Hints:
Blueprint: E1 10-14, H1 18-26, E2 33-38, E3 42-44, H2 49-53, E4 63-65, H3 66-69, E5 76-80, E6 83-87, E7 92-95, E8 98-101, E9 104-107, E10 111-113, H4 119-124, H5 131-150, H6 154-160, E11 162-166, H7 170-190, E12 200-204, H8 216-228, E13 231-234, E14 239-242, E15 246-249, E16 253-256, E17 259-262, E18 266-268, E19 279-280, E20 284-286, E21 299-301, E22 306-307, H9 321-339, E23 354-359, E24 362-366, E25 371-373, H10 375-388, H11 392-408, H12 422-431
Parallel strand pairs: 1-2, 1-9, 2-5, 9-21, 11-12, 11-17, 12-13, 20-22
Antiparallel strand pairs: 3-4, 6-7, 7-8, 10-18, 14-15, 15-16, 19-20, 23-24, 24-25
The structure holds flavin-adenine dinucleotide.
Amino acid sequence: MDNNHTTFPKVIIIGGGFGGIQLAKKLNKKEVDVLMLDRHNYHTFQPLLYQVATGGLEPDSIAFPLRKVFKSQKNLNFRVADVLEIKPDENKVITDIGDYSYDYLVIATGSETNFFGQTEIEHFSMPMKTVPEALNLRSLLLQNLEEALVEQDAVRKEALLTFVVVGGGPTGVETAGALAELRNHVLISDYPELDIKTLRIFLIEGSPRVLEPFSEQASAKAKEFLENMGVVVMEQTRVNGYDGKIITYDTDKTINTKAVIWSAGVKGAIIPGLEKAEIVRGGRIKTTTYNKIIGYNNVYAIGDLAYMETKDFPHGHPGVAQTAIQQGQQLGDNLIRIINNEQPKDFDYYDKGSMATVGRNKAVVDLKYWKFQGFFAWLTWMFVHLLFLVGFRNKAVTLMNWIINYFSYDRGTRVIIRKFNRELMKEEMIAK
Ligand SMILES: Cc1cc2nc3c(=O)[nH]c(=O)nc-3n(C[C@H](O)[C@H](O)[C@H](O)COP(=O)(O)OP(=O)(O)OC[C@H]3O[C@@H](n4cnc5c(N)ncnc54)[C@H](O)[C@@H]3O)c2cc1C
């Protein structure tokens, strides 16, 4: 299929995430024909997925239509397409809606949940990487509570009222904190017939401390916040299995649970076809210092998918939105340099710091020269997240929701729009 209407070089960007959007914007008004392909017609603001999963935000407020992002960009076409394969020898990508040819290809597909080859855990636990997955999780949590109300068997009831979050990185910490707030402020009045004190929340982390990439001070404070909210934090604990009813950890210890949320790792979302590419730890593709995939002349990778060694980051850059944003912007400039036969510039990551929130008035922020926690950290976290949300409407709706939730202690979107059906999921997995 032909996607261009000029003789300018054709650039295909796979993925309208943090990196893909910034790259495409940099190419606006340049002499290139851009085609963006994404399997969704919207950009997902992943940092707030956990708020959708716990009823704090509507899904629409963290998703933004990609066509709207680029409505005034004349040199860009967008197609909803699942890219199935890359044929670098033919300069072509194969998608579920047809084939497209390129002069330059940028892969910005991000990452996917990593179950580390544990198929049973993959089948029974809940990932949280996309809006539909966050909605599945929201339905499951609420369905479990409804079932617990009528369950007569004590063991089954305990399992329905036990939520286990695996992985104590920012996503796991934020999810466990949000679940605790939901229990402590909302469910207690929604389910007066249930003894809500029996609703247990566990956070299991394999390394010696939660928020391991953060400062020790931030880790300790996050743990303290969580424990004060009633979360059982288990560090240096390895999950061995989960069969849908019992999670096993440290070889032979168990917890009864019907809700395991898996936030223990991600791996690069690789598309088949790049046989010459070097895939490193975490399923990332090795690139040069200007994001060109080693082994190819005109194929690039940015964001979560890219692994680049530099002097300051000898083991690659963190898999966070800032890396994708900065690499997308830099590659936009570099592609124009390359097309004009100029030397591309090396990527130099500017680390703006890390932050995670645990609940109302509770967050941790690590900046280069200043680390702080508590109320001011929480305000900073909210400000930064609002700043990076795509679209004015999304910012306004999210801010309004947060204000209402803050004063009412409520989480308004605790609705089961469509039931989560694990058996249906299983069939889909087998069909895949
Ligand atoms: C729950 C969660 C919380 C997070 N919290 C934070 C946080 O607080 N702060 C932070 O900085 N980072 C956070 N991150 C990480 C951050 O979201 C990622 O680092 C960032 O999204 C990476 O950007 P990207 O452009 O590489 O990929 P993404 O933003 O993931 O975009 C990839 C795009 O590619 C599309 N795609 C993938 N495969 C295909 C295919 N085969 N065909 C077509 N389209 C495809 C996807 O639909 C998606 O739109 C979080 C991530 C998660 C999952």
